[in-house]
Amino acid sequence: MTGRRIRRPAPTAGALEVAFSRIRADRRHGAHALGEAALEALTQLLDRWSRAGERPSRASAERVARLIEKAQPAMGSFVRWAREWRRLRRASSPDRFVSNARAWVRRERAQLRSEEGRLARIARARYPRSARCVVTLSRSRSVLGALSTLPTTRRPTEVLVLESLPGGEGRGFARDLRRAGLRARVVPDSEGEKAVGTADLVVIGADAVYADGSVAHKVGTRSLARAAFRRGVPVVVVAGRSKFTGRPALRRALPALFDRTPSRYITEVWTDRGVRAGRPPARRPPERSSH
Predict the structure, then answer these.
(1) Which of 88, 114, 140 is the last residue of a domain?
(2) Alpha helices in the chain (DSSP H)
(3) Number of structural domains, the chain?
(4) Which range, of 14-18, 231-235, 258-262, averages the lowest pLDDT?
């Protein structure tokens, strides 16, 4: 998902809780925008601690880690950041924790901001020339960048965007694609499998990429990827390394607006550091609907 810049509270007492409550309740923005908001909130907290000369206790550091992981438990960056915040607190002396944490936040922000350009370069190198009709869903900033930066002669002739209920982010994403000069059409979620039957490629974003190769994304992704796999249509995930958790998927259920797509349905993952191969798609049936 994409959207306008998120309004952030001033760094006053309790601002961190306010900021992360807003992130937790946000249904309009994607992982990139929410990650930027989280890093900004942590920067404000660390600046306040630094000005006050505070040496946060393990208990206060743990409270921050819990705010991070509860804000967006389906998003890989938040899962990883909570884990790294705890590791940093254990590895740092009380005198060094704040300065070390500030350096860590700067690195994470730089990584997040550098991903888009690198992802676009990977997409330009990897996008199949034969893919004229593309299906996608939700409102992924990474997918938008991957498609909109393709040379004009290699762009898809049409992008079919699932409506992505509840929330209907697909409608907004279709507008984003049109503003970028692509031909995009919204289709109801119930027609996703039919849309796949006319497609050459399915391109989706990801909120988290797990060590087992599965991905968490907007609910409906799994069924779309399964339909594509059965029809022999390649499924590509576009996701920066900030989305990678470094851990296998947890057994507990994801929040209601997300689902998990297993690696067996994914052909490739395009990352800002290269391409990760998945499983090849099933053989395409001999007869296929025309565009």
Answers:
(1) 114
(2) 15-25, 31-52, 58-71, 76-91, 97-126, 141-148, 169-179, 192-196, 221-231
(3) 2
(4) 14-18
